[in-house]
Amino acid sequence: MATTFSVLVENKFWVLARISRLFSRHMFNIQNLTVAPTLDENVSCMTIDVEESQERLRRMKLELKKIINVISVNVCNEETYVETEMVLVKIKKSNPNFKSFLKEVEKFQARVVYSKGDIEIIEFSGDSKRINAFLSTSEAHNVQSVLRTGTLAMPKE
Amino acid sequence: MPKINGAEIVLKVLERNGVDQIFGIPGGVVLPLYDKLYFSKIKHHLTRHEQGAVHMAQGYARVTGKVGVAFVTSGPGATNTVTGLYDAKLDSIPILVISGQVSRPIIGTDGFQEADVVGITMAATKHNDLVSKIEDLEKTIEQALIIAQEGRPGPVLIDIPKDIFLSEIDYPLLPNKKVKIEKIEVKGEFEDAARALCEAKKPLCYFGGGIINADASKELVQIIELLNLPATPTLMGLGALSGKHKNNLGMLGMHGTFAANRAMHETDCILAAGVRFDDRVTGKLAEFAPYAKVIHIEVDPAEISKIKKADWPLIGDAKLGLEKLTQDVKKYLSEGHSNRTISMKNWWETVNNWRDNYPLQYEKHPKKIKPQQIIEECYKQTKGNIIAATDVGQHQMWAAQYFPVHEPRCWVTSGGLGTMGYGLPAAIGAKFGKPDKTVIAFVGDGSFQMNIQELSSLMLEHVNVKIIIFNNGFLGMVRQWQELFFGERYSATPLRELSPDFVKIAGAYKITAKKVIDPKDLSKAISEMLKHKGPYLLDVITDEEEHVYPMVPAGAASKDMLLKKEL
Fold first, then answer.
1. b/e string for B45-55 if b means 16 or more Cβ within 10 A?
2. Does residue B479 sit in helix, strand or coil?
3. Contact across the interface for A63 and B301, Cβ inside 8 Å
4. B21-58: per-residue pLDDT in tens?
5. What is the pTM of this model?
6. Any CB–CB contact under 8 A between A66 and chain B?
7. Interchain contact A59–B (C-beta under 8 A)
8. CA atoms within 13 A on the CB side of B421
9. DSSP-assigned states of every residue in B353-378
10. Helices A98-107 and A128-140 meet at what angle, rounded to 10?
11. What secondary structure letter does DSSP report for B306?
12. Residues of A in contact with B313 (CB under 8 A)
């Protein structure tokens, strides 16, 4: 199961490279990564998903804290963080499964964000369980393509 | 407020922070910096290769405790610093490299002598940065000096585009004074650690370069003497406790003493201070110190329980940490828990038996000079009152074993990275840092040739560094492994026919030199070298078959040492 790091960093060039280099250098494969500025434009929040042992996660947290541009490091869990992710799914209307897929879209309360000619694009967001469920449904309906944003994690307090 | 240009700002921030010497080589984009340096009171030492400049800065930093500074140009100038930076990172040495970069409009266009230096040196530094606007320059240099020194010291590289050197801005924007380096406050269960250390039946103090970086020698000696702890340094910790101190068992690890490694195997409580349990210390980790609880005083939290689990992590500055632990030990003992006499007597008897039965030893030969003899003779003639710098290899290990370093900051060696070519330039940097000290560079015939160009730096400034080449005609340490573990197949290690005449080389650089082959000439040759005013090179032909012992083979447990050559 993936663990999510929420890392506040200085919003400047090289910082993304510094952080991702550290993960690679310790032979971690980043599963998901989102970066965007916070309300303070000098600070960005990086949300990073990795699958690793507890011991290696503990050490990675300490290594991250050593990077000069890092402001804080938190390891997220369900109790203290709200996690969500967004996906975009493209499907052809000529797809024989299209109608049945639209029913699923309704059921998941996803929404159509683009529809023209033969193409329809659906947007869906939710926690990892709901995302995985929606993605497997999408796959079963033989959709054209899927894009994921990566996890966002916000502390509850 | 007067406006000055970026080049001058760099120099002014360095000057106000007490930097009085810089090592480096000029080049295209640092011309504006070198032009302002022309008017500065900072002394510049011209090196012949940027790697030499960084190692000199390291040598300077090691002996003075101050930040060593190097200036290099863009492209190849900067890429040549990578080895030195990484070396300083692994050994936690505070240095600052200022590299010139092509002007901002050219960055990213593959301009002449353009290299992605921040990208290349990211892994090799504690921190690096590219200055992207003149407004940031003063603060960036000041921060760089703080980062290099604060907490666990390390190398910092600041890349400065040429057009920023030439831009003008008000100065100073910050208070015009020296930065203050704050010690990292200590935290942890000190009282309980003190109790555990006092209750241990077989305690051992294991210390490293962190003690020297924190100037914590006095505090280290205090706790060792208070509890009469047997103590063992890492390669980087040599000198933190005098090599002649009665409690010092000598270095531990792959080429450590029998007593130190056995004590580590048997101990029930390690006081680990300013150390990181390097694999050259632990050997086979699963069998390292199997009975020990660990008290770990360490400034870098990421080192705690990285290799060996710490039962009492005491995080913070080593000086403050040892002070606090000593106070708590005194308190614990004063509460009537001082019944350590019998267990400590037994422990010392055991330890002293190991020392007596398995001392460091080698056999002299009537015709061949044994490398250990050179070290012993240097120690005898100088009474140990020198700065010893080494390269990397067999000679380095013999120096670590046979030269009992008396004081902190008198031992200059490349530990973590094991950089051949470090010795000569680091010795030169050390001499510039401590001009009143005799500096001897112990080098191998292999490693010496990796930065041999720095003889020119010796010649230029007539720097009084003594160089002793341990010339066994081989890449000796590699040869040793080939002999022991690779069926005596000496693949690419013989150097005898491939090396130059070192005496003639020295002569070409106007450096006095002599070659010694016969053991009976050795003492006189060293004495002549020491009496000579100015730099001197002594080329000593040594026995190529001599191995470094004891030895823990790679992957073996440290208790399973090879003590001598099996014949």
1. bebbbbbbbbb
2. helix
3. no
4. 999 999 999 999 999 999 999 999 999 999 999 999 99
5. 0.96
6. yes
7. yes
8. 19
9. HHHHHS-------SSSB-HHHHHHHH
10. 170
11. S
12. none
